[in-house]
Amino acid sequence: MTPYIKEQLEIFISNLVQAAKAMMLYSPEHRVTTGHAASALGSLNLILAAEDTLKIIRIGGELFVSGIPLEKNPHVERLNQQMSEYGIGHISLMRGAGSADILLLMRIVAGKEASKLKSTPHLIFGAVELDDTRSEPEEVSQPIPSYSAIPGELMARVANDFESCTSREHFDLQAVMALVAGFITSFRGEANPLLALVPLREMDEYTFTHSLDVCILNIAQGMSLGFEGQLLHDIGIAAMLHDVGKQFVPPEVLNKPGELTDDEWLEMRRHTVHGAHYLLNTPGMPRIAVMSAFEHHMKYDMTGYP
Predict the structure, then answer these.
(1) CA 293, 299, 304, 306: dihedral to nearest 10 degrees?
(2) How far is 71 from 143, CA to CA, in rounded Å?
(3) pLDDT tens-digit series, residues 59-71
(4) What is the dihedral of CA 161, 165, 168, 173, to 10 degrees?
(5) H and E: helices and strands count for the chain
(6) Could you give the dihedral angle defined by the CA atoms of residues 75, 81, 87 and 93, in that order, rounded to the nearest 10 degrees?
(7) How are beta strands 62-65 and 68-69 bridged, if at all?
(8) What pLDDT score does 59 carry?
(9) Burial of 41 by CB count in 10 Å (0-12 exposed, 13-18 middle, 19+ buried)?
């Protein structure tokens, strides 16, 4: 995000919230309301002249744009609060958005819009907050002590999930849950997690086999720290899917043997945002999985990416 876009974004959110507050005190037609609404639309148009789409994403109680958390202030907090209240995972504004779209956002910020939101051609409400109503994980009848012990049908379902990401099909979350449950059952029976690690045979298998290894190690680590039940299963799911965004990286970049160019490195770094977007739109996905996909390269001191 450039300093210019950041400045216009701050102006947009500030005027949007002030317009909503004026609407609550006066009316949508009052000059104070329309003045702030016009300023909000003006800043939005400047942003959309430089970017095709403005996406405001809510993850873990914070708002992000282009992978960067928005600095907290009363206006950002009000927008964050109302997105949470309406169960909005992300808002996408596209070129062509007009005063009617601004008015709809104002009504949301003011808490005056109906609970069932309807998108418009230029204003899309995505992934209504992540669904935690998924069924309890089922322990598989047979433990999975190693990669070679994964049932062929289950392996095919999970592998197909990774391959189908780019077509925007949803993950077969039940298959991933069954795989995680199988590992947990096995490790509870004192199987050695290190013996379950997957040998890397082909570079084009890297993302899938690496994800399996991270899943195995995270489950073992979680169990050693005393995690159990739904949280342990969610940790396994998050680990299995942390790199799913790499499916959106061009293969020639992902599998390049030499050093990446600056543009290629930028494309590679975007896999965290791609992964979070994809999982955010997958019904029943644990919150921790979206956060792991987004934050796993961020580093403890926030010097990583996105």
Answers:
(1) 30
(2) 46
(3) 778 888 877 888 8
(4) 30
(5) 12, 5
(6) 0
(7) antiparallel
(8) 79
(9) buried
